[in-house]
Amino acid sequence: MTVTVDGTVYGTYPLSEDRTLTVDTGRGANTLRIEGGRVWISEADCPNRDCVEKGAISSTGQIILCLPHKLSVTITSREGGGPDAISY
Asked: 2-74: which CATH topology?
């Protein structure tokens, strides 16, 4: 999972390690929770809190955005290297 702030990579974190991470973007703060192979924003001080309402994500390509804070959380790959899709 990759966290970016204003287009710059803030950090990359494995979904396999449970943790709580607070990201201060300079525009506000978001608290991310990684647990059970999923990630979600559990707290945010933005006005609309759409990022909190998004809920948990766990599949490659899924994203959570906090537009007021210019923060994005993207599932960039699943550990184990399995296929994202199979074509026949």
From this structure: mini-chromosome maintenance (MCM) complex, domain 2 (2.60.320)
Domain spans of the chain? Answer: 2-74
Handedness of CA 77, 78, 81, 85 (dihedral sign): negative
Q: Which residue has the tokens 């287009």?
A: 7
pTM of the model: 0.85
Residue 67 token pair: 């537009």
CA–CA distance, 82 with 10 (Å, rounded to integer): 26
Q: What does the block give as tokens for 40?
A: 């979600």
- Read off the tokens for 16: 């396999």
Calpha distance 39→48 (Å, rounded): 20
Mean pLDDT of the residues in the chain: 91
